[in-house]
Amino acid sequence: MKATDRQLHLNVFLMGNGHHEAAWRLPGSSPQDVTNASYYVKLLQTAERGKLDSLFLADSYALPPTIRYKVLQSLEPFTLLSALAMLTSRIGLIGTASTTYSHPYHVARQFASLDFISGGRAAWNIVTSTNDATAHNFADEKLPEHGERYKRAAEFLEVVQQLWDSWEDDALVQDKASGIYADPGSIHDIRHQGSYFSVRGALNLPRPPQGQPVRVQAGASETGKEFAAHAAEVVFTAQNSFADGCLFYTDLKSRMKKYGRQPDELKILPGFCPIIGDTEAEARDREAALHDHIQFDYGLLRLSNLFSTDMTGFELDEPVPVDFLAQQSEVNGHRGRYQLYVELARREKLTMRQLIVKTASSRGHYSMVGTPVQIADEMEKWWRGGAADGFNVMPPYLPEGLELFVDKVVPELQNRGIFRSEYTGTTLREHYGLQRPASIYGQTGQLAVKR
Amino acid sequence: MKATDRQLHLNVFLMGNGHHEAAWRLPGSSPQDVTNASYYVKLLQTAERGKLDSLFLADSYALPPTIRYKVLQSLEPFTLLSALAMLTSRIGLIGTASTTYSHPYHVARQFASLDFISGGRAAWNIVTSTNDATAHNFADEKLPEHGERYKRAAEFLEVVQQLWDSWEDDALVQDKASGIYADPGSIHDIRHQGSYFSVRGALNLPRPPQGQPVRVQAGASETGKEFAAHAAEVVFTAQNSFADGCLFYTDLKSRMKKYGRQPDELKILPGFCPIIGDTEAEARDREAALHDHIQFDYGLLRLSNLFSTDMTGFELDEPVPVDFLAQQSEVNGHRGRYQLYVELARREKLTMRQLIVKTASSRGHYSMVGTPVQIADEMEKWWRGGAADGFNVMPPYLPEGLELFVDKVVPELQNRGIFRSEYTGTTLREHYGLQRPASIYGQTGQLAVKR
Ligand SMILES: Cc1cc2nc3c(=O)[nH]c(=O)nc-3n(C[C@H](O)[C@H](O)[C@H](O)COP(=O)(O)O)c2cc1C
Ligand SMILES: Cc1cc2nc3c(=O)[nH]c(=O)nc-3n(C[C@H](O)[C@H](O)[C@H](O)COP(=O)(O)O)c2cc1C
Q1: Is pLDDT above 80 for B219?
Q2: Are residues B261 and B175 in the same domain?
């Protein structure tokens, strides 16, 4: 395998006891482990055995209204990812931070710090927050309007990138003899004064090992896609089908040119939730065991939140009211996901009950039940066929759902020569084939601090 | 030793290559390790060998203007402390967060998360920020006025404590059979609406293992001391002498009664910077090796920052201009430290050069050069004599300064029966003899989640 050969990328998205909303109720699940760092350590050691590119932790700053039925997502990402960095050596660490309810100085610093602690494995999933419950914890009545949030996100990101670059790569002198620790001439106040932020700088940490931690994004609206085309290096997306995946892939990559970017500077990873069995029947049994534990009261609540409309009055065995939903103009939160559900229900003529079941495993991400070979076939098809640069793997239940993927699907992909058998780099940028960016101030492109 | 016997407490305060400002220039120092988590892991493993109560990391959100001469403080505390939690098992982890430039939802969550990750070892050093450079990174011209900052701190803390308590200890049900994960009736929106914050709640994490992470504080002004008397459980303080230590100790403890608190609900730990030798001569040599590396240009800059006055024009061998300094009315930042330096210079009739040397080891904290027995004698004197419940140990250089303390002074204290030979508890509250607080909502006082 030549170093220039295109390779498939695999991120693992861990959430609670797995992505299936009923996973915590399986006999093999430990809901009490979700606040326990060693639970994640074991999972990540499995993922590193599979040579996966990265781990992703989602986040929001509010308690979901469905806590009665649904396991906690996880611990706070900065604290948990830093903890995990110490007991893993290669896997990338992608954490979420919101540009609507955080401050760029803190975010720049925490990702820089994580990048040092992990030896260059940090990435930021840039989100704008999607629910008013978060707004209520930060003195807002409602989330700012959708376009406004993305404007703020763009400025926020600009500030963070300037802060990461505020120390040139060679600013640390550390000369004991002369007593010069750092060269102030190579450390720059950013003096940012914008519409949302005023930040003098510089950062109180040197340029991180990756130069800049990797930028990840997952917006699906028009504005979200423009943002990604301009700024993201890895994109997560929920796609219902291979055909939809191809459309999204072509659409997003074609938007990059006007920002002066090459298509391979951005890796597109559709969500992929595999339910794996040595035989199809075994896989179906595993799916049935999960679906058996679905709570439809919870399903209706979940849909109500997504659609910002009370759905609890609708009959489970009636068709999804797609026309009614399409009329609801004001969806300020999860815009892309809203459309995806309505289209899915329309296309497949689903009842409410069916929509709940269909989205119970992975909330609208592509979900597949099959043997390791069938799953590898499907992944290869998406990857070769122009729908994906890799996948955001969403184990439906844990730890087994991840173990089966690593022990059965990964070897299948390796045998086909499309996925690495050993890590070839040490940083997240190296895993994804993303260049270390030159500083806006200095141009050496060398590591400032070696680990 | 009975469990009820009063014991001495030891916190280690790590900073850069040690507290002496020239420590990074010693042959045995590694300035490049300050951004390396494994450097701190080794130090903490030494501290755990010595059965120390806790580690403290200071923090600010701005690059010091003296970076030309002075090693970085450390990494961002939440990320670093979480990393350290994974490779230590008992030592408490005290991190700094500012109430002036952070948000209570984030702070509550990150300390709760650290408390879970560490199994109940988290504590928060509550600061209000002390310099305008921080203000400039958060869109402020200047730091808010001193009294205003403390008002905001009080409200901030109230919100954080309510968030920590927002889940009763028994709110997690996790009943797989019924599908009830948590009991919404035991999870409370805090609905806080105050002068500075409006936070709906609840926190998106259960009540942390300690119920509430420990509250640490280090203000020295009148307002700061009132705040501590009301709210702190551990207090750091800089004291020039045993006599000053006694005055501060009595003063602070006597302020607690009006808040309905017992004196032993708050532990006072004066800073203590030991330069240790097997003989006095050896200790003096170590001090001289450090002092030899002092840079007086840096010293003048440091004093200028502290006094908010340009001191670079003053002659090094002239007396400190104490009257001039006493007249400077507007010291909005480090009020307590300002007074301490002026008094020290007045009492000991110091020149500028002498003041710089005197404060180079520990910036005004008590500093002592001597043998392990002399140092243990002094500590015992402060502890028995009503000046301290323990010490904030500030190794002047690292790693040796800490190793000597752990291997030579700690056994001396243990032999005298005043310091533990084994950890008897697992949480930071247990180490300090502080009770796990009952929730404002529930009263069970039991651990919600066992680790
Ligand atoms: C895989 C994936 C993960 C996401 N993770 C988060 C998250 O952790 N926090 C969050 O607030 N939004 C998250 N989102 C939502 C998106 O980042 C985005 O904010 C949302 O789709 C709304 O933007 P849009 O209107 O451009 O689609 C995620 C979306 C996807 C597909
Ligand atoms: C040991 C010690 C550690 C401190 N650590 C910090 C810190 O990490 N960050 C900070 O902003 N201030 C720190 N301070 C400053 C105090 O917390 C306090 O903000 C300062 O003394 C000003 O308050 P005052 O005017 O009440 O004295 C520290 C003080 C002491 C004695």
Answers
A1: yes
A2: yes
Do B342 and B256 share a domain, yes or no? Answer: no
Taking Cα atoms as reference points, which of A197, A208, A45 lies closest to residue A124?
Answer: A208
B444 within domain boundaries: no
Q: Do B204 and A73 touch (CB under 8 A)?
A: yes
Contact call for B199 and A449, based on CB within 8 A: no
| One-character DSSP codes across B184-251 | GGGB-EEEEE-SS-EEEE--SSPPPTTSSPEEEE---SHHHHHHHHHH-SEEEE--SSHHHHHHHHHH
Domain finish residue from A327, A359, A391: A359
Give the range of the structural domain holding residue B322, as residue numbers without chain letter. 295-359
How many independent structural domains does chain A possess? 2
Instruction: Please tell me the distance from the alpha carbon of residue B187 to that of residue B208, in angstroms, as a whole number.
Output: 13
| Minimal-distance CA residue of chain A relative to B202 | A63
Weakest-pLDDT range from A29-33, A156-160, A312-316, B328-332: B328-332
d(CA A208, CA A447): 8
Handedness of CA B29, B33, B38, B39 (dihedral sign): positive
Ligand (nearest to CA of A56): 1
B451 inside domain:
no
Rounded to whole angstroms, the maximal C-alpha distance in chain A is: 80
> Does this model's pTM top 0.90?
yes
Nearest to A87 among B80, B86, B116 (CB): B86
Spatial separation of the C-alpha atoms in residues B446 and B206, rounded to whole Å: 13
Residue A60: CB within 6 Å of ligand 1?
yes
| Peptide linkage before B27 cis (omega within 30 of 0) | no
